[in-house]
Amino acid sequence: MIKKITLSFFLICFFSNIQAQMKELSDERKMELSKQSNDTVSTAIGKLVLPTPYHSESIRKESKVIGWGDKKPQAPNGFTVEKFADGFEHPRWTYIAPNNDIFVVESNTQKSANRITVLRDNDGDALPDEREIFLEGLNQPFGMLILNGFFYVANTDGLYRYPYKEGQLKLESKGEKILDLPAGGYNNHWTRNLIANEDGSKIYVSVGSASNVGEYGMETEVRRANILEINPDGTGEKIYAAGLRNPVGMDWNPVTGELWTAVNERDKIGNNLVPDYITSVEEDGWYGWPYSYYGDIKDPRWEEDPHNHLVQKAIVPDVPVGPHTASLGLKFYTANQFPEKYKNGAFVGQHGSWNRADFSGYKIVFVPFEDGEPGIPEDFLTGFIASEANSEVYGRPVAVSILPDGSLLVNDDDSNTIWRVSAQ
């Protein structure tokens, strides 16, 4: 217990009082770094060779979403892809309730709809029959949770809970803010996700960093780049794990019981640095951001103030899933509709790159697991890139969730569509 208190207290005090010493490097220093030897680390799925920082120029390549028309994403042989629902305004995230109602957050970085829509399948055909606006007037909502007679919503600036009865299609009561959260953030780091433990005694809240690599001062990063643990009433906050630049998707490994998360790593040091990852999350674990990555590989932008004591304790994440992929969604497959190879494996939603000369991400990746241990990631749902040359994409996948019949839902937030993938 002392260890838990010490970690949270240390990190809050540390980030509150230190002035950032992150420095933008000269072109000459970047050239020197680019000529050094590659780094090799051991991950849970094998050796990973990482290029040197500034091995290539940092490129900004934004995608233009053109919509699907009569096209649709492509799944492996033996699967069918169909449109589940459309007509949303950025359907960023989906939560399947215990009674199988489907809650969809409509939220965005700019011009956010700030609402939750509920879908209901009445006849068991895995398609929605009812659709209602469940809750409006929110502030960049993202994570949702039903627990102990309450509906929880994680807005970007705070966690709210509302009295809830199973089957409600609209919330009329006023919510109670039970936890303040630091708002704002670099790119899409406004998202706050939620998950409860098995017995409902704790809630975990993911909070991304306010910056790329601490350039705004570490005093702005208090309670950020963390997964927080709280009691269901918002009390008892502690930092469960830290140094996670932008943790978003969270789920429980169905075999080991470990908490896993999908994390966006840092930008602007080359096309292939730093790979995003999914990883098991150790309680009181430190994962390096912003001072190092993949364990003790030091970020050169902090070389004048390297924080060696933290670098030395940094944990190597388990599964790299590609650089700049914006891996956001994470869901373990515990249903039975898909072939056996998918059982207890993880689906990862990759929103897609903006800081890479060639697009990466823009797909759903599957990570097979055996006896609770991860294997090599493989493509599952592709076809989102329309034209690399013209920087055009049909859509951008985010959340992944599992319907009661075992089919997979994929939120394509920039095409305002949710896709359903089923086994034939």
What keywords describe this structure?
mainly beta, five-stranded mixed beta sheet, 6-blade_b-propeller_TolB-like, Neuraminidase, globular, four-stranded antiparallel beta sheet, signal, 424 residues, 38% strand
How would you explain this protein's 3D organization?
This protein is mostly beta strands and 424 residues long. The protein has a single domain, classed as Neuraminidase, CATH 2.120.10. Helix content is 7%, strand content 38%. The strands form ten sheets. It has a five-stranded mixed β-sheet. It has a four-stranded antiparallel β-sheet with strand order 4-34-33-32, with no helix packed on it. The chain has a four-stranded antiparallel β-sheet with strand order 5-6-7-8, with no helix packed on it. It is globular and about 65 Å long.
Secondary-structure blueprint:
Layout: H1 2-17, H2 27-34, E1 39-43, E2 46-50, E3 64-65, E4 79-86, E5 91-96, E6 102-106, E7 115-120, E8 130-135, E9 144-147, E10 150-155, E11 158-163, E12 176-180, E13 192-196, E14 203-207, E15 226-230, E16 238-242, E17 246-252, E18 259-264, E19 275-280, E20 285-286, E21 292-293, E22 297-298, H3 308-311, E23 319-323, E24 327-332, E25 346-350, E26 363-367, E27 369-370, E28 373-374, E29 378-381, E30 385-387, E31 392-393, E32 397-402, E33 408-412, E34 417-423
Parallel strand pairs: 3-31, 16-20
Antiparallel strand pairs: 1-2, 4-34, 5-6, 6-7, 7-8, 9-10, 10-11, 11-12, 13-14, 14-15, 15-16, 17-18, 18-19, 19-23, 21-22, 24-25, 25-26, 26-29, 27-28, 30-31, 32-33, 33-34
